[in-house]
Structure formats: structure tokens, C-alpha cells
Specification:
Elements: H1 3-14, H2 36-46, H3 48-61, H4 67-70, H5 74-97, H6 104-124
Helix pairs in contact: 3-5, 5-6
């Protein structure tokens, strides 16, 4: 875009005085807004190996447990599974980073709930 056209456009936006910069200089200000959910997703992606290991450790905790008789239903099993899953992650990140990010359980459930349901279905079928 030519500087002449930029002056016309910025003059309309900023008023009749024109742009608040010298000719030939263009400053662009961008603001990036990241939601908490996106931040938690980034946290999980950066630590995928550790999160996956914690998931596998949690699955091992439930090996040999009769899930169908021990838990009243799928919802109770899912709650207990993710409770243990968060405990294994907290053990790792409590001292390194001061704990887990807020509301990380929702993001973990988004990524792993279908796997937990498969575990329940395999053991109760």
C-alpha cells in the first residue's frame, strides 16, 4: 500500500490530523488474546510425553481391579480415574512449576475421556 493511501485511510480512522507517526514509518499494534482453555491445551501439548506417561501409569493402577463391581457406573469410574490421573500429574509438576494450571481437568477429559470409556466398556462387557 502506498504511503499516500495509508494517510487517507489513517486520516479517516484517526481524525483529520492524520497518523501519529512520521512519514515512511508504519507501526502496527497487535493484541493476541489467548483464552484459558487454549492455554491449557498448549500446556498439554508442550508436556505430551509426561502427560501420556501419567495416563499410562493411571491405567496400570486400574489393571486387575474389577471395575464393574467396584464402581456403581461409568460416571463414578470416570471421576475416580481422572482424580488419580490428576494426582499423578500433580506429583510431577508440583515442585517444578508450582502445580497444575487451573481447570486442566476439563482439557484432560476432552483428550482422554473416550479412552477411559473404552477401558470401562472392555472390562464390563
Amino acid at each position: 500500500m502506498q504511503l499516500k493511501n495509508l494517510k487517507k485511510i489513517s486520516g479517516k480512522i484517526l481524525g483529520k490530523k492524520g497518523p501519529p507517526f512520521k512519514e515512511g514509518c508504519i507501526f502496527i499494534t497487535m493484541k493476541i488474546i489467548i483464552t484459558e482453555s487454549q492455554m491449557n491445551g498448549l500446556w498439554l501439548k508442550r508436556r505430551y510425553d509426561v502427560v501420556e506417561k501419567s495416563y499410562n501409569d493411571t491405567v496400570e493402577l486400574f489393571d486387575g481391579v474389577d471395575i464393574c463391581t467396584r464402581y456403581d457406573g461409568l460416571d463414578e469410574f470416570i471421576d475416580m480415574f481422572f482424580w488419580w490421573f490428576l494426582r499423578t500429574l500433580e506429583d510431577i509438576y508440583y515442585y517444578e512449576e508450582g502445580g497444575l494450571p487451573d481447570n486442566i481437568k476439563e482439557k484432560l477429559m476432552e483428550y482422554y475421556k473416550h479412552k477411559v470409556i473404552e477401558i470401562y466398556d472392555e472390562s464390563c462387557s
